[in-house]
Amino acid sequence: MDSVFKVRYSQLSPTAIKDELPKRYDVLEPIQCEFFDSGMNDIYRVKTTNECFYLRFSQTGMHEEKDYEEEIDILLDLLHIELPVVRPVRAKDGTFLWKINAPEGTRYGVLFREVKNEPSEDKKTSFRNLGRNIAKMHQRADEKHYTCSRQPIDLVALTRKPLEQIRPYLKHREKDYEFLVESSERLGKMIEDKLQMKEPYYGFCHGDLHSGNIFFDEMTPIIFDFDCMGYGYRSYDLCVYAWNESYQNSDYLEGKEWRALLEGYEEIRILDMKEVQSLEAFIALRQLWLMGLHADVMERNAGCCWYNDNYFNEQIKIYQNWYQKSIMR
């Protein structure tokens, strides 16, 4: 048989990557390369005698080459003003992007230095610093007018797109789907009535600011994984941290950590009361967005065994809880 069977996703060999690394980068041998994790990207952990790096390879078709170049430009600008974010590693030829011709198409790689995760016990100062740094990132983006060609994190991305993505999996649950459509339209209208799509309420956002993408070196928060970045509502960018922590603590929005984060943010920019009032609505839409993201990941490189009625029972319940909180404001 001469033809090669079509693949939707391939996993790059750690051994082949290890062999290529010293050709591309000024890293000291011996090198250890391990497949570390998979999701929206494939992540490899690269260790040398004295250093540790993480190599991220995109999924084919997730973004375009210019999207990754823009991401690198933004990271370098934030590092230039000494805002703590993940540091990309420049290759010997002066570039940052590594293009791989995989069986399913072009994949883009970027090597990053390890981000230390050694948090201080001083949570109040740490989270105040986090809020301050998020506000500084937003402020810098407004000053420099960052170029970001990725899909905006607007109400289309938070309502219509995830509804389209999950529709095939809810054909047997028409009432649930109708509820998601009607309630998300209501939330979107509430947000449109409150917030204008202009600075400082709307602008460049990281898009995925949860605890898995922010490590603390003592009291210094270091932000990484800008894969979900785009232009969107700043209150959405803020809400993501509370959304994630609320899985473990349903009262997180009333807690000291969240209060410290907002206080730190407002040292740089005072939030409009309407932005604060929109947080629960954005958390609900974040939950809807997650359901759509999971449908997309399942179609790209994951199996379907977990994306079932039990999954939707849990996810819709969480969404409904935040929806009820938002309309009671």
Which structural traits does this protein have?
single chain, 329 residues, alpha+beta, Phosphorylase Kinase, domain 1, Aminoglycoside 3'-phosphotransferase, Chain: A, domain 2, 10 strands
How would you sum up this structure in a few lines?
Helix content is 47%, strand content 16%.
Describe this structure in words.
- The chain contains ten helices and ten strands.
- With 329 residues, it is an alpha+beta fold.
- The protein is globular.
- The model has no long low-confidence stretch (mean pLDDT 97).
- This is Aminoglycoside phosphotransferase.
- Keywords: Transferase.
- Belongs to the pseudomonas-type ThrB family.
Could you describe the largest sheet, including whether it forms a barrel? 5 strands, antiparallel
Gyration radius, to the nearest Å?
21 Å
- Beta-strand percentage? 15-25%
CATH fold-level topology of the largest domain = Aminoglycoside 3'-phosphotransferase, Chain: A, domain 2
Spans of at least 5 consecutive residues whose pLDDT stays below 50 are none
CATH architecture of the largest domain: Alpha-Beta Complex
CATH class of the largest domain: Alpha Beta
Q: CATH superfamily name of the largest domain?
A: Aminoglycoside phosphotransferase (APH), C-terminal lobe
General shape: globular
Q: How many H/I helical runs?
A: 10
Distance between the termini: 64 Å
Order of helices and strands: HEEEHEEEHHHEEEEHHHHH
How many individual domains? 2
Helix coverage percent of residues?
40-55%
- Largest sheet, spatial ordering of strands: 1-2-3-5-4
| Count of distinct strands | 10
Family: Belongs to the pseudomonas-type ThrB family.
GO molecular function, one term: homoserine kinase activity
Protein name: Aminoglycoside phosphotransferase
InterPro entries: Aminoglycoside_PTrfase, Kinase-like_dom_sf, Pseudomonas-type_ThrB
